[in-house]
Specification:
The protein is built from eight helices and two strands. Strand 1 and strand 2 form a beta hairpin. Helix 1 crosses helix 5, helix 1 packs parallel to helix 6 and helix 7 runs antiparallel to helix 8. It is found in: Cytoplasm; Nucleus. One of its GO terms (cellular component) is spliceosomal complex.
Length: 275
C-alpha cells in the first residue's frame, strides 16, 4: 500500500474520531458513486479555491475538502471511514441508551423516594390529626368532668345552704320560744303581774331577818335586792339580743334568787308559828 493510501486511511480514521461528517461536507450520501463524489467536490469546493477566494483563502478548509474527496473516492478509505463512523455512532447510541437507562433508574429511584416521602408525610399528617382529635376529645372529656364536678359542688353547696337556712330558722323559732317563755316567767316581777315561780312576798318577813344564801348568810332585804338586780339583768340581755346561753343563765339566776327568798319566807313562817 502506497504512502498516499496510508495517509488517506489515516485521514479517514482521524475524521471519524473527530466526528466530521464528510458526506455532509460534500453534499453526498453513503450511496453516491466515486464519479459523483468528484463532481460534488468540484461544485462545493469552488468557492474555497485559491483563485476564487483570493485574500480570504482558507488553507485548512481547502485541505479538508480535498481530504474528504480523497477518502470518499477511495473504496478502502471510505469503508474504513464508514466503519469508524458506524462504530462511533454505535458507541454513542450505547452511551445514550445507557444514559437513558441510568436516567430511567434515577427517575424510578427518585419516584420511589418521593412516594415514600409522600407516604411518610401523609402518615405524619394522619397521626398529627389523630393526635389533635384525641387532645380535643380529652379536653372535652375533662371539661365535662369539671362541669359535672362544678354542678355537684353547687348542688352540695345549695343543700348546705338550705340546711343552714333551716337550722337558723329553727334556732330563731327556738330562740323566740325561749324568749316568750322567759317573758312569761318574769311577768310576776312586773307591776300588776303574778310570779310563775315561788310566791315571794306572801309572807311578811322583816328586812333584817338573816338567812343562809349558799356559803354566806344574808339578810332578807339583801335577797330582795339580789332578785331585783337579777330581773333587771334579764331585761337588759333581752334588749341587747345576746346569745341564748347567756340569757338562759341570767334567767336561771332569777329563779335561784326567788327560790332562796321563798325558802327564807317558809323558814320565817315556821319559826313564827312555833311561838
Amino acid at each position: 500500500m502506497g504512502d498516499d493510501n496510508k495517509d488517506i486511511l489515516r485521514y479517514a480514521t482521524e475524521y471519524a474520531e473527530q466526528n466530521i461528517d464528510l458526506y455532509e461536507l460534500l453534499g453526498v450520501d453513503a450511496l453516491t458513486p466515486k464519479e459523483d463524489v468528484h463532481r460534488a467536490w468540484r461544485k462545493r469546493s469552488l468557492m474555497y479555491h485559491p483563485d476564487k477566494a483570493g485574500a480570504k483563502f482558507d488553507a485548512a478548509k481547502w485541505e479538508l475538502f480535498e481530504h474528504a474527496r480523497d477518502v470518499l473516492a477511495d473504496p478502502n478509505a471510505r469503508a474504513a471511514y464508514d466503519q469508524a463512523m458506524k462504530a462511533k455512532l454505535l458507541r454513542k447510541q450505547e452511551r445514550e441508551a445507557m444514559d437513558k437507562e441510568r436516567k430511567k433508574f434515577a427517575d424510578d429511584l427518585e419516584a420511589r423516594e418521593n412516594a415514600v416521602k409522600r407516604q411518610q408525610q401523609e402518615k405524619q399528617q394522619r397521626d398529627s390529626e389523630a393526635m389533635q382529635k384525641e387532645r380535643e376529645r380529652l379536653a372535652e372529656l375533662n371539661r365535662m368532668r369539671e362541669e359535672e364536678t362544678r354542678r355537684r359542688e353547687e348542688a352540695a353547696q345549695e343543700m348546705e345552704d338550705i340546711a343552714e337556712a333551716k337550722r337558723r330558722l329553727k334556732e330563731k323559732k327556738e330562740e323566740k320560744a325561749r324568749r316568750k317563755q322567759a317573758k312569761e316567767a318574769l311577768k310576776g316581777t312586773a307591776v300588776g303581774g303574778r310570779p310563775s315561780g315561788p310566791a315571794n312576798g306572801v309572807v311578811i318577813v322583816p328586812g333584817n331577818y338573816v338567812v343562809d344564801a349558799g356559803d354566806v348568810k344574808k339578810k332578807y332585804w339583801e335577797l330582795v335586792c339580789d332578785k331585783l338586780v337579777a330581773v333587771q339583768a334579764v331585761r337588759n340581755l333581752q334588749k341587747a339580743q345576746v346569745a341564748t346561753e347567756e340569757l338562759q343563765q341570767a334567767e336561771r339566776n332569777v329563779q335561784e334568787v326567788r327560790r332562796r327568798i321563798h325558802e327564807a319566807e317558809l323558814k320565817y313562817e315556821r319559826e313564827t308559828s312555833a311561838h
